[in-house]
């Protein structure tokens, strides 16, 4: 065994409490190097009386490593443990004291999980595990009240630019709640609603007022109430990294400089705060002078922003916040933010916008979830022919091992957003490839989200083209695609195994672009078969039972001599299931 590849630390994603009675342990080994791993566990005060040697399951792998996992339920909420690894005739032990070939004498030199403190268990909102999200840009979804349109307003459905307006508003969303209910949506995420001069509203001027082009605060409250009546949760966008240049405190800094009571609210590198030769003397979001960056370490600003977060949670019974540019805001701010929001609504769902590995924000003291852009990138790379099945399974295994399991259950998975090209465009206009992506989205771990219009075939390149108006003329919608989305959403909502079950690849081979994978819980076992090629194929895999059915047609599907043979058209798929006998 390659000892240098062995890795475990008794914290974060490697050793954590999944719930008040269960500890998850993980270990890393070299790929295909270890035949079996065991967790040697017991209570340090009664090792002999509590000792268990538990076989670990190889739950994921990436290009270089295998990852093993086991759930332990200690008798007294504390755990001492070590790992036993075998390969052929070789056995080694991994302990807190190091790696050795001799059997240890526990509990000395073992790793320790000192105690499961319920306050320290990473808790995520249960409803988010069941949710199907729908992202809406209010300005582009529906114009329900032309009387509040900005001037000038474009004809609905025209070409979007960075600066034009089409008149979408909150009333438009209310008018189409029947459509969201019909699709099967149970939660919506709205991009910023508060007063701002732009069409996207990420340059906020008044954090406690709905933009008059969208409606008013009372109408937002009505929207949330109507959604809640239908069982739809509502999450708003919190822009706390920066504001708009017309935000009154920033205008005061422009006017009064260092003497402004708000001077400490911003990162002014040199007074006066202004733009010199195209470069601002203050920090900004990106390189946009019209979006000055907040100094969230400032106590007065911090109290103001935390007050905003609490205000909307209480005022409209908000179900959560999506946190814009979250990785550029300091961690102490987000820790206080979580405390304030969770005190106002313990089930509030907090989603950070972080585009890379986000573990630092997901340890229970800041966010519940992040926008899983790496998921979207890897799924789209695979289903557009960028990598083979083996590479894809490696990459997804790496993603699964980034976070504790309860975080994986609510990580915010999407295939596109207001910041990326449209899904149908990213797959080259091939609806068959789009469907494969969507099947994967709705049969994978995490909380799925649909970007408005993807379900009826909207296309578009990057910003601003991806921010097209929603098409409400049914004759111009792809209704077959809509019905497909509806079918997949209903399938996920109907079966807990597709939300909480174990995920594992069964067939993902080098040079082979096809996949077979499974989701399984104590009641149901699903297998998903995918042909990611332009030719029809028959995929095979051993199956031990004869009780499989097609999840979409209910047709019986029987293996022959213990081998399942599944014929798939080009870019076709099939979803099978069986009830597990108890």
Name of the CATH superfamily of the largest domain = Glycosidases
Radius of gyration computed on alpha carbons: 26 Å
Structural class: alpha+beta
The pLDDT mean sits at 97
Architecture per CATH nomenclature, i.e. the level-2 architecture of the largest domain:
Alpha-Beta Barrel
Distance between the termini: 38 Å
Tell me the number of helical segments per DSSP (H or I, 4 or more residues long).
16
Q: How many structural units, i.e. domains? A: 4
User: What do we call the CATH topology of the largest domain?
Assistant: TIM Barrel
- How helical, in percent, are the residues? 10-25%
Instruction: Order the strands across the largest sheet as they lie in space.
Output: 20-19-18-15-12-11-22-21
- The number of strands is 30
Q: Main beta sheet, described? A: 8 strands, parallel
Which shape, going by the Cα principal axes? Answer: globular
The CATH first-level class of the largest domain comes to Alpha Beta
Describe the structure.
Keywords: Glycosidase, Hydrolase. This is Alpha-glycosidase. The chain is built from 16 helices and 30 strands. By secondary structure, the protein is an alpha+beta fold. The chain folds into 4 domains: 3-120, Immunoglobulin-like; 126-243 and 299-494, Glycosidases (TIM Barrel), CATH 3.20.20; 244-295, Alpha-Beta Complex (Oligo-1,6-glucosidase, domain 2); 500-579, Golgi alpha-mannosidase II (Immunoglobulin-like, Sandwich). The chain has an 8-stranded parallel beta sheet with strand order 20-19-18-15-12-11-22-21. Strand 18, helix 9 and strand 19 form a beta-alpha-beta unit. The longest helix is centred in the middle third of the chain and has 18 residues, at 299-316. The mean pLDDT is 97.
């Amino acid at each position: 065994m390659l000892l240098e590849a062995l890795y475990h630390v008794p914290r974060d994603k490697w050793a954590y409490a999944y719930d008040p009675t269960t500890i998850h342990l993980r270990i890393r080994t070299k790929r295909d190097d270890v035949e079996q791993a065991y967790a040697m566990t017991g209570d340090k005060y009664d090792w002999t009386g509590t000792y268990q040697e538990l076989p670990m399951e190889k739950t994921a792998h990436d290009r270089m490593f295998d990852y093993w996992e086991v759930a332990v339920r200690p008798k007294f909420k504390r755990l001492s443990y070590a790992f036993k690894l075998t390969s052929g005739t070789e056995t080694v032990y991994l302990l807190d004291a190091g790696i050795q070939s001799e059997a240890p004498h526990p509990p000395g030199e073992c790793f320790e999980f000192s105690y499961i403190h319920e306050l320290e268990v990473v808790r995520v909102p249960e409803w988010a595990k069941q949710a199907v999200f729908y992202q809406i840009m209010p300005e582009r979804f529906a114009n329900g009240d032309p009387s509040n349109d900005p001037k000038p307003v474009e004809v609905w459905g025209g070409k979007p630019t960075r600066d034009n307006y089409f008149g979408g508003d909150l009333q438009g969303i209310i008018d189409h709640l029947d459509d969201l209910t019909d699709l099967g949506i149970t939660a919506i995420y709205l991009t910023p609603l508060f007063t701002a001069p732009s069409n996207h509203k990420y340059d906020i001027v008044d954090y406690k007022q709905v933009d008059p082009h969208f409606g008013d605060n009372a109408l937002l409250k009505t929207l949330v109430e109507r959604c809640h009546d239908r069982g739809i949760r509502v999450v708003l966008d919190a822009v706390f990294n920066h504001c708009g240049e017309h935000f009154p405190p920033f205008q005061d800094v422009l006017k009064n400089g260092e003497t402004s009571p708000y001077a400490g609210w911003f990162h002014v590198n040199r007074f006066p705060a202004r733009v010199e030769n195209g470069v601002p003397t203050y920090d900004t979001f990106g390189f946009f002078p019209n979006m000055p960056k907040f100094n969230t370490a400032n106590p007065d600003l911090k109290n103001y922003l935390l007050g905003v977060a609490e205000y909307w949670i209480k005022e409209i019974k908000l179900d959560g916040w999506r946190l814009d540019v979250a990785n550029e805001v300091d961690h102490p701010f987000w820790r206080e933010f979580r405390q304030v929001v969770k005190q106002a609504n313990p089930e509030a769902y907090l989603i950070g916008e972080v585009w890379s590995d986000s573990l630092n924000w997901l340890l229970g003291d800041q966010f519940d979830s992040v926008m899983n852009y790496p998921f979207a990138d890897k799924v789209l790379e695979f289903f557009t022919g960028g990598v083979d099945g083996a590479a894809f399974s490696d990459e997804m295994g790496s993603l699964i091992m980034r976070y504790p399991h309860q975080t994986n259950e609510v990580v915010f998975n999407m295939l596109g957003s207001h910041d990326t090209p449209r899904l149908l465009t990213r797959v080259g206009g091939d609806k068959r490839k789009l469907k494969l992506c969507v099947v994967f989205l709705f049969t994978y771990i995490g909380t799925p989200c649909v970007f408005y219009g993807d379900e009826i075939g909207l296309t578009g390149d990057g910003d601003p083209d991806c921010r097209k108006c929603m098409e409400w003329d049914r004759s111009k919608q792809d209704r077959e695609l809509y019905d497909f989305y509806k079918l997949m959403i209903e399938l996920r909502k109907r079966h807990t195994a597709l939300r909480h079950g174990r995920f594992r690849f069964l067939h993902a081979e080098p040079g082979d672009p096809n996949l077979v994978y499974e989701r399984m819980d104590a009641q149901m076992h699903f297998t998903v078969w995918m042909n990611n090629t332009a030719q029809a194929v028959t995929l095979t895999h051993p199956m031990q039972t004869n009780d499989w059915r097609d999840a979409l047609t209910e047709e019986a599907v029987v293996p022959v001599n213990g081998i399942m043979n599944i014929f798939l058209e080009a870019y076709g798929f099939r979803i099978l299931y069986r009830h597990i006998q108890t």
